[in-house]
Structure formats: structure tokens, C-alpha cells
Write a structure and sequence with these properties.
By secondary structure, the protein is an all-alpha fold. Helix content is 71%, strand content 0%.
């Protein structure tokens, strides 16, 4: 739940921060780059272009106006990708001014459409283009003659430097007349540098990145700094993969802080960037600097007096607590949280106290304690103070706890339905996504794969309620990662490994290894590979994956290690690991893993023919699965019970018990589970028939059952189990006097036996995993 509560961070980014104009050196609008943009707008209004090209250019206008200055080569390339005809016209217009005389630039400004009279064009006074043109014309008309001349020289240098240095990697257009005090309006300091990577121009709408090898630049203007910080903060929240790489962003922030160390918002973005790479020292350092600068700059105190000062302190402590929670430092988190609670109580800040209470029950959950009472109190108080976001988070936390405690599905779904109404009412799209991902996980835990698949697809196809800025959809959140991982595992269970590869590849692209949610798909991918190798009998390939799984999840790693050891007939080592794992899971109340461990332990008893010894374990596992409404595990426990009864000599009872599990397994089970169920059913039918004349119907029915089992195992390329099926088919056809079918099955068995070159313990694999 820690990632769910990340949105509780107090983040006044770009809302109450003030960028000091004297430090960032605000320049006026008239620069060579802005003249190039003005030329583009002029050609758009004067020339005829197709509707698709106009749409692409319209999307490009705002980023070009608000973004950092580009070199001429990059600017022309960006425009050319939208409309080559307009790019050529802009290039020709700039050539006329740069290679002509000063009067040519004067003529260009005089021919611009007037925003106050252009009612039928994009240059109308209230439009984006009209406002830009008004600023440009007003600034240009204020220039003295010497300033106009220096602007013209700057434009010439801007134009000719593109042809003198055609490579896009050149940086550092010299600031002409930088030492002239009367040239503030035309200083090219804002146009210095190669800011946009050439390869990223395929997506001109806010998806270009700063070059990673860009050297330290001069100070940005206020608008450029604000635009850069707002853009990167938005991308980090909604699509981290499209934000700057951590190293490149760190370099830009260091350069920005070099010119203004007290720029609070830059410190906060530095904190977010450090969290991406799990740098605890730099994260805490930047977070503390952010609140120090926020307090020292007086941004809070000016509007709220002493209350603003205290507000920054308590939210600083709260953010520090959340930071330590993120890194698993529970003691430090608890101390910071208590400090935040103390300050909030002194100030009577109920909103901050509710945030603290939310983090308090989250911290208790992380430590493995029962936080139900705290969570319920948090929901009640959040509802009382009209904080729907916190109330909904609390309800979702209660649902998660209820699922692990064995609550029935309809109660959990009713609670989620009530929260969904709240989400849609207040347009809380982030919580809608979390709710759908949680519903997917709950159905998956209950063994309802069809419902889990439906909810996962619903989440992936839902339209986000967030405003679509920077051309980004909100699709890199933890909820999407969880849903995609569930879909990958569900496809793997059905043997659709090509679809699994596509899903995993998408996850790798959307959540690169350095991102915070990458561990989800890493563990999912490793588990899928492990199960596939185990199904195919390639234990030598499955064994190395155990170490990688253990690095991401120790419990899952130990369970997989026991499975490999059991498959390699190292029963003593496997039994010791399973006992340790059961004790650990009972302590941490991990019911699903406890049941799986019990089933694996029962399989070890089978290896030593201790079928009667396995019965108490299987009955205990079945009771636990039914108590927690875990249908998939309950069905698996029934399969184990049926096999045990078969081996104890009561096939009729085994077949009766098996019928309880066939329907849910065929409806929601994995292909391997279906094959195992059909194989066990055929064994029971053969045992019941006993090849007696009055029981020939059961034997004939077993033929169809074995054929169905063979189809399931063939889909997974499970050759060892196919060998067992062909062996039983040969025996069955021989007993029924079907010589041709018997010879065919015997030949298939012989071919697989020679290929595998390993003993075929049919008995022990008929119902085991």
C-alpha cells in the first residue's frame, strides 16, 4: 500500500513556488528563436496547408512557445516532420531576413497580422497565437535603434551558425553584446544550447528530451524553468518512461541549482528523481533542502504568517516519514510520523492529522501488525472531514486486509462498489485504477480467472479522467503494472506463451528496470519461466531461476527451491525447506503459501508411500482453503485427496470426491490443472472398471478422458506427462482388445521414453504438480 499512498505526499510543486526573476534572468520575448517561431506562425496564417498538417502544427505551437530555445536545425526539423512545405517557407523567410538588410526584418514585423483585427485567423487577440504575437510586437516596438540592430546581428548569427556547424550536437551560441547593459531585451542567453535530442522529434508534442551529454548551460528564464520543472514532474507522475533519464535530469537540476541554490521546486524534483533510483541519502537531502528553502523564501509565511511556517514543518516531517516507509526504515519512519502528529495537533490541523493516520496504519501493515482498528478510525475521520481520497484509500486497505483474513467475496465487492461510486463522483481516476487492479487481484486469489481477466481488461481499456497533458496517458502506475502481470500469468496458465512474451515486452518498455514498479514484472516473468521449465521437465533450466526469484521475493524463492529439490528426488532437503517455510508463513499469516506448502509436503509423503500420513495434511489444507474461499487451492486439495484415496484402494470414493473439483477446474483452472484432473479421472475410471465385463462403460469413458488429458499436456509440451498418458492408453486399449490403437499408443510411449531417457514413475505424477 506504500505506493498507493505516494499521492499523499505534500507536493506544492508549481503552485506556490516563486522563481526569483533576478536570479534566472528573465529576458524579453524578442530573440532569434522567437522570431523563427513568429515566422512559422506567419506562414501558417498566410499559406494553405492540409487539415492533418494544420493539426500537427497546432499541436506544436504551445511546446515551441513555452519550451526551451532550439537551434535552427532542430527547429526546422521539428516543423518539417509536421509539414515540409511550411518548413521550407519558414527557412526562406529567415533567409530573406538574415542575408538581406535590417529593413527586411523591419518589413517582416510590419507585415504581421494585427491580433486586434484578425478575427477569422489563428492570430486573433485571445488565441494562443494572438497573445504570442501581441507580446512580440509590443516588445519589438519598445526596442531602441541600437537594440534593433543588435537583434538583427543576433538573428544573422543564429541563422548562419546552422550552416557553419551543420551537426546538431553543437552547443553554445555566443551571446552577442552580452556586456552591453542596454541589450537586456535582445540577449541570446536564452537561446544558448542544444536542448532537444534529434531522435525524439518523431513525437513533437512534449515528448522530446534534453540531451544527456549537454554541458552546463547558462541560467534559464523564469518561464523556461517553470515549464521544465512542471513537465518533468508531470512525466514522473504519469509516464516515467518518457521523462528524462535519471542522470540527465540530475545534471539539468544541478545546473539550475548552481544559478539559484534556493529554488525550492528544483530541490523537490531532485527528491523525486532520487527516489527513482532508490538513492536514500540524496532523497532525504533534497527533501530537507526543499522545505528549508520553502520556509526561508517566505512563500508560506507571506500568505499565512506563522501558520505557513508550521504547515511546512509538519508536512516536511510527514514526507520524511513516507520516505523512510518507502525504504523500509520503520523505526525512523515512526519517529518522523510521531513528530508530524505532534506538530499537527499543536496547530489543530485536521487534514494533516488524517494524512498522518493514513500513513500510521500503512506503517503498521508494513511491519506485519494488525491495523484494522486504525484503518477503520481513519475512514470514519476522513469521512467526517470530507476527505474522500483518504476515506477511499482506507476502505481499499480494509478490503485488502479482509481478503487475506477470509472475508467472503460479495462483502468485499460491495465495499469496492461503494468506493467506486465515490471515485466517479469526485473524478478520482487514480483510485478508480487502484480499485480495478485490486478487484483483479481478489478474483485471482479466489481462483476466478475469468473474472480476473475481465477486470484486468477493463482497467487497460478505461479512459483516464486525468487531463491529457504533454501527450501522456496515465498508464505507468502500479495499478497498470499489476493488471498486466495478472494478464501475463493468466495467459501463461493457458499455454499462450507468445501472448505472454508480448505482454512482458510491453511491461519492459513501459516500466524500465530503474523504475519503481519494475520488480513486479521481473518477478512475474521469472515465475512464468520457472513454471514453464518445470512443466516441460527442464529442471536444469528452472534451478538457476530460483536465485533470481529469491532476490525479489524470499518466500516465493524458498517455495520454488523446494519444488526443484522435490523434482530432483532430494526429498530430505525439500522437506526441511518446506517446514521452515510453513513456520514463517504461519507467523506472517500468508494463508495461500501455507496451503501450498501443505500440499507439497503431502506429495513428499507420497514419495515414501505414506498415503495415510498425507491425509491429515490434505484435510487441513482443504479446510483452510474453504475457510478463506480460495477455490483454486481448494480444488487442488481435492485432487490430492482423490489421488490419495485411489492409492489407498478406494477408487469409487476417489471418483466421487474428484467430481467436486472437475467443474471449477475446467471453468477457471490452468491447462496443467485440467490435464492433471483428466488424467486422474481416467485412472479412477480404469480402477473402478477393473476390466470386468459389467464395467466396460467406465473403461470406454476413460479412453475419451485420456485423449482430453493428452490434448492439454500437448499444449504445454509436457512430454513426461504425455508419456504417462500414452502408457495408460496402451494398457487400456490392450484390455479392450483394440490392437491398432494399442500399438499406436505403445509406439508414442516408446518414442517419448527414448527421448526423455529418464525413469517413468507414473504413479507419483498422476496428480502431483
Amino acid at each position: 500500500m506504500a505506493s498507493v499512498h505516494e499521492s499523499l505526499y505534500f507536493n506544492p510543486m508549481m503552485t506556490n513556488g516563486v522563481v526569483h526573476a533576478n536570479v534566472f534572468g528573465i529576458k524579453d520575448w524578442v530573440t532569434p528563436y522567437k522570431i523563427s517561431v513568429l515566422a512559422l506562425l506567419y506562414e501558417m496564417t498566410a499559406s494553405k496547408i492540409t487539415l492533418p498538417e494544420r493539426r500537427r502544427l497546432n499541436k506544436l505551437i504551445l511546446p515551441l512557445q513555452q519550451g526551451p530555445d532550439l537551434t535552427l536545425g532542430q527547429f526546422l526539423q521539428t516543423v518539417e516532420e509536421c509539414c515540409s512545405q511550411t518548413a521550407y517557407a519558414v527557412k526562406l523567410r529567415l533567409h530573406e531576413m538574415a542575408d538581406g538588410e535590417l529593413k527586411d526584418m523591419e518589413y517582416f514585423f510590419s507585415t504581421l497580422p494585427t491580433p486586434f483585427t484578425a478575427f477569422d485567423s489563428e492570430a486573433y487577440k485571445t488565441s494562443v497565437v494572438g497573445l504570442f504575437m501581441r507580446h512580440m510586437l509590443l516588445a519589438y516596438n519598445k526596442l531602441s535603434f541600437s537594440q534593433v540592430y543588435k537583434l538583427y546581428r543576433s538573428l544573422q548569427h543564429y541563422y548562419h551558425s546552422h550552416y557553419a556547424k551543420p551537426t546538431d550536437g553543437q552547443v553554445g551560441l555566443p551571446a552577442l553584446a552580452a556586456d552591453d547593459s542596454d541589450m537586456d531585451l535582445t540577449s541570446t542567453e536564452d537561446t544558448v544550447g542544444d536542448r532537444v535530442d534529434k531522435e525524439e522529434m518523431d513525437t513533437p508534442l512534449h515528448e522530446s528530451e534534453l540531451r544527456e551529454n549537454t554541458p552546463s548551460r547558462g541560467p534559464l528564464s523564469q518561464k523556461q524553468a517553470e515549464y521544465f520543472l512542471a513537465r518533468q514532474a508531470y512525466l514522473l507522475k504519469n509516464d516515467e518512461n518518457k521523462a528524462l533519464k535519471p542522470a540527465a535530469l540530475q545534471e539539468e537540476l544541478n545546473n539550475m541549482l548552481k544559478f539559484n541554490p534556493d529554488f525550492a521546486e528544483a530541490h523537490y524534483l531532485n527528491y523525486l528523481n532520487s527516489m527513482r533510483v532508490q538513492d536514500i541519502f540524496l532523497s532525504a537531502h533534497s527533501l530537507l533542502h526543499y522545505f528549508d528553502r520553502l520556509i526561508l523564501s517566505g512563500n508560506e509565511g507571506k500568505s499565512n504568517g506563522d501558520e505557513g511556517y508550521g504547515r511546512s514543518l509538519r508536512y516536511a516531517a510527514l514526507n520524511l516519514a513516507s520516505l523512510h516507509c518507502r525504504f523500509g526504515h520503520y523505526r525512523q519512519a515512526d519517529l518522523a510520523l510521531q513528530e508530524a502528529i505532534r506538530i499537527a495537533q499543536e496547530s489543530n490541523d485536521h487534514v494533516c492529522l488524517q494524512h498522518c493516520l493514513s500513513w500510521l496504519y500503512t506503517l503498521e501493515q508494513m511491519k506485519g501488525s494488525d491495523s484494522t482498528v486504525l484503518t477503520e478510525d481513519s475512514v470514519k475521520m476522513a469521512a467526517h472531514f470530507c476527505l474522500p481520497y483518504l476515506a477511499s484509500l482506507g476502505i481499499q486497505s480494509l478490503v485488502q486486509q479482509g481478503a487475506t483474513q477470509g472475508k467472503t467475496a460479495h462483502k468485499l465487492m460491495d465495499a469496492l462498489k461503494d468506493t467506486d461510486i465515490l471515485h466517479w463522483k469526485h473524478s478520482l481516476s487514480e483510485l478508480i485504477e487502484i480499485s480495478l487492479a485490486q478487484t483483479t487481484s481478489i478474483w485471482r486469489m479466489y481462483g476466478k480467472s475469468t473474472m480476473a481477466l475481465q477486470q484486468g481488461q477493463l482497467l487497460l481499456n478505461i479512459s483516464s479522467l486525468e487531463p491529457v497533458n504533454f501527450g501522456v496517458q496515465q498508464n505507468n502506475t502500479e495499478a497498470f503494472a499489476v493488471a498486466l502481470c495478472h494478464l501475463a500469468e493468466l495467459h501463461a496458465e493457458q499455454g499462450l506463451y507468445s501472448a505472454v512474451s508480448e505482454i512482458i515486452q510491453h511491461l519492459k518498455e513501459q516500466f524500465p528496470p530503474h523504475t519503481q514498479h519494475a520488480k513486479l514484472w521481473m518477478l512475474c516473468d521469472l515465475k512464468i519461466q520457472f513454471e514453464r521449465h518445470m512443466n516441460e521437465g527442464k529442471y536444469h533450466l528452472a534451478e538457476p531461476l530460483v536465485t533470481a526469484i529469491s532476490a525479489l521475493n524470499k518466500t516465493e524463492g524458498l517455495y520454488r527451491k523446494a519444488q526443484v529439490l522435490k523434482a530432483l528426488n532430494r526429498s530430505t532437503e525439500a522437506y526441511r525447506i518446506l517446514q521452515q517455510l510453513q513456520v514463517h508463513c504461519e507467523k506472517t499469516k500468508c494463508t495461500e503459501m501455507v496451503i501450498r506448502v501443505m500440499l507439497s509436503t503431502a506429495e513428499l509423503h507420497w514419495e515414501s508411500s505414506g498415503f495415510s500420513t498425507a491425509l491429515p495434511l490434505l484435510l487441513q489444507a482443504l479446510a483452510l482453503a474453504r475457510q478463506h474461499h480460495l477455490q483454486s487451492l481448494a480444488s487442488e486439495a481435492i485432487l490430492h485427496l482423490a489421488f490419495t484415496q485411489l492409492m489407498l484402494g478406494v477408487p469409487e470414493q476417489a471418483l466421487t470426491v474428484l467430481h467436486e473439483a472437475i467443474e471449477p477446474v475446467l471453468a477457471h483452472g490452468a491447462v496443467m490443472d485440467k490435464g492433471r484432473t483428466m488424467l486422474l479421472a481416467a485412472r479412477c475410471q480404469m480402477a473402478v472398471a477393473g476390466f470386468r465385463p459389467n464395467r466396460q462403460g467406465q473403461a470406454v469413458l476413460a479412453v475419451d478422458t485420456l485423449n482430453e488429458a493428452a490434448a492439454y499436456f500437448s499444449k504445454l509440451n509436457c512430454k513426461e506427462r504425455l508419456r504417462d498418458v500414452h502408457y495408460l492408453q496402451a494398457q487400456l486399449h490392450h484390455a479392450l482388445g483394440q490392437t491398432l490403437q494399442r500399438n499406436k499408443s505403445a509406439m508414442l510411449f516408446r518414442l517419448l521414453d527414448q527421448e526423455l531417457q529418464s525413469p517413468a514413475p507414473v504413479i507419483s505424477r498422476l496428480a502431483t504438480r
